[in-house]
Design goal:
It contains 13 helices and no strands. The protein is mainly alpha-helical. It has a single domain, classed as MetI-like (MetI-like fold). Helix 1 packs across helix 12, helix 3 packs parallel to helix 7 and helix 7 packs antiparallel against helix 10. The longest helix has 41 residues. The chain is flat, with a radius of gyration of 24 Å.
């Protein structure tokens, strides 16, 4: 009997070690290795090539960083990307909240079908959508403008945000809402004091996906915004064309990641189950 308990305890310890180890290896292969390669390529000295069988560059230099910041409008592109991503996120939230509320809390005919339909823009090829919208926006005078790019980005990012918020509204306990109604809360007060606190985790998660998706969108930004408005992805893809410049592309990739990482760091502490628990406790 003691041997069986000892073997069972050993098995639990092995499982407790193996699972985190496997997750750590997956994280290394998925994120750390590509990021490390990007950093190394951005620091390659142009006077000393880096190729197989060398594992690491023989000489490092900041030449490519200086080149990108000196000969491209990278700072202006960052500003443009942040403006468009902010406008896209705000516009998506304004459209998504009432729509998700209607789908998630109201008994609408065909709501299940509509849930599938709203995801269809995500299945459409980005370049095909960009070419179609680019022609329309050009006729409407929305080309080469922040508003035009943001409206196009909203069409691509809204479905995911809408789906996340719909699930958030659907998962709300009905007894909490009924209790607020029985206590005399009017519709606006119920929405502000009951619904909003409980959708905050889903709303923040959806906003992060929307913001990052807008920051990384190339097709719509290029077709609708070029040549007047240049975003970071348009600079990145200029180095991924016929004359493939891996070093400069690595620099732009790392620069493009900085705003996304900052947003994730600033909002990560909001995405916790304690917020949902606090909302329920407040009721």
């Amino acid at each position: 009997m003691p041997d069986r308990n000892r073997n069972r305890s050993l098995t639990k310890k092995l499982v407790a070690f193996i699972i985190p180890a496997c997750l750590g290896l997956i994280f290394m292969a998925w994120f750390v290795v590509p990021m490390g390669m990007a950093v190394l390529w951005s620091l390659v000295n142009p006077d000393y090539s880096w190729s197989y069988p060398q594992i690491f560059p023989s000489h490092l230099s900041l030449y490519h960083w200086k080149h990108v910041f000196r000969y491209t409008n990278i700072l202006g592109a960052i500003k443009n990307s942040l403006i468009v991503a902010t406008m896209t996120t705000i516009g998506s939230v304004i459209l998504a909240i009432p729509t998700a509320y209607a789908i998630g809390r109201r008994k609408l005919i065909g709501s299940e079908t509509f849930k599938i339909i709203i995801l269809l823009p995500m299945a459409m090829p980005g370049m095909a959508m960009a070419i179609f919208l680019g022609r329309m926006f050009s006729k409407w005078g929305l080309s080469n403008s922040y508003l035009g790019i943001a409206l196009a980005h909203i069409l691509c990012t809204l479905p995911l945000l809408l789906r996340i918020l719909t699930v958030s509204f659907e998962s709300m306990p009905q007894d909490i809402i009924d209790a607020a109604s029985n206590l005399g809360a009017n519709p606006w007060y119920r929405f502000k004091e009951v619904y909003v606190p409980m959708i905050v985790p889903g709303l923040i998660a959806g906003c992060i996906f929307t913001f990052i998706g807008s920051m990384e969108e190339f097709n719509l930004s290029f077709i609708i915004g070029a040549p007047r408005i240049q975003t970071v992805p348009t600079i990145l893809y200029s180095y991924l064309g016929y004359n493939f410049l891996r070093t400069n592309a690595s620099v732009v990739t790392l620069v493009m990641m900085v705003p996304n990482i900052i947003v994730l760091m600033l909002t990560e502490h909001f995405i916790k189950t304690e917020y949902l628990g606090a909302a329920l406790g407040k009721m």
